[in-house]
Amino acid sequence: MSKTVLVVDDSPSVRQVVSMVLKASGHKVTEAGNGIEGLEKLQGNKFNLIVCDVNMPEMDGLTFVEHARQLESCKFTPILMLTTETKDEMRERAKAMGVRAWLVKPFQPQVLLSAIAKLA
Q1: Where are residues bearing 4-aspartylphosphate located in the sequence (predicted)?
Q2: Maximum separation of any 2 CA atoms in the chain, in Å
């Protein structure tokens, strides 16, 4: 089933790879280069899922999640963090904020698709 996914990552190459994997599986993808752009994309749009990096300039992923959860349209939107971050305390903080999944880069496309199928 096709999902509408927001991909928030400061790396153009990561956004491109994630988008290609998702589009090849029939999903619709919108991209943002940091948390501020991500919040702008959320305005007036409804997404089935958000895939977000943690470490980004302008606004990091956890700050983005904090702001996104304040929006009525995103209170219950599943969020998957796709990051190089491996610290347990960071994962626990994200989980407490409502992040539903955590994948570490580099990722296998099938693992990403499997996680998305379970979340959205």
Answers
A1: 53
A2: 34
